[in-house]
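Subject: Sanity check before I submit

Could someone independently write out the structure tokens for this chain? I want to compare against mine line by line before I put it in a report. The sequence has 306 residues.
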Amino acid sequence: MKVTAFLIASFSATVILLGSGCAVDSKRVKGSSGGYGDPKTWVAAAEAHEKQGDFQGALFEYRVARTLAKQDSEIKQSIKHLESQISKRTKKLIAQGNKAVRQGKISKARRLYLETLGLEPINKDALEAMRRLDEKSSRRSMQRKVAISQRNYKSRRKKAKANNGYGDETYTYSRQAILQAGNRPADIDGLIKELEKHITKYPNDLEMRSLLSKTRMGQAEKSFQAENYSDTLNYLEQAESAVNGDKKKLQTITKIRKEYGKGLYIKGLRSSRSEPKQALKYWEYALKFNPNDKKTRLRIQKINTM
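---
Independent answer below. Compare away.
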């Protein structure tokens, strides 16, 4: 029968796979302790990893072996040698990545930095290089968005510009101010100032209203993570005001409000037994984020009657 044949084939494949396990693993299963108590087992595994170019895996195996044979000078020397190899390799990769950046080969540079982090996850040079690449990518993205927005707006308003009381040149200068503020990631206040100034002059610019709302929501997220819940509420209210009644965007903000409320509700549950006063504060804020949450309201009523 077909089912029987399938089962036989599956069983045979399983036996083949089990029988073809790596040499290192077969060594580890020998002996009463499964081989894991023998430092030679881990050294053999480390050597196998090193031959395959897996330096991190090899280093891990050597370090385990060292815990089993702390006085073994050969193991210590192997670790020292491997760490030196990793250091040389990471320096070479960093240099290649920096060269790729200078040549404008950003994808290649990113791959080289990631390979560095694969060898040494806390390599400061690679982490800093990746941060710079991400920041540069963010600036370019903002420039593209503003440029596209300017082109679209000019196209839509070309015939009606005389009736609106302003020309394309004035509008372009206003957009350029926003672009310059957006190019400074740390200057969020500057970006918001330029956005609000632009929207005051051009209240029907929906794209800039949306950008202002997203910026305010970003501020809300940071404030929430820092447990500055009053500021978070203010930023969300400003984000709602910026979208000027856009139902779809208001729904998105409402969803985020509920998520924040849920997070505070859970925090309150976790601290309700040991710190009931703190739990009450969490729930009171949760209700401000989501006034229609019945569970939070009941928790507040219950703790107030205790």
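---
OP: Matches mine. For the report I'm noting this point. Confidence is low (pLDDT under 50) at residues 1-33, 162-167.
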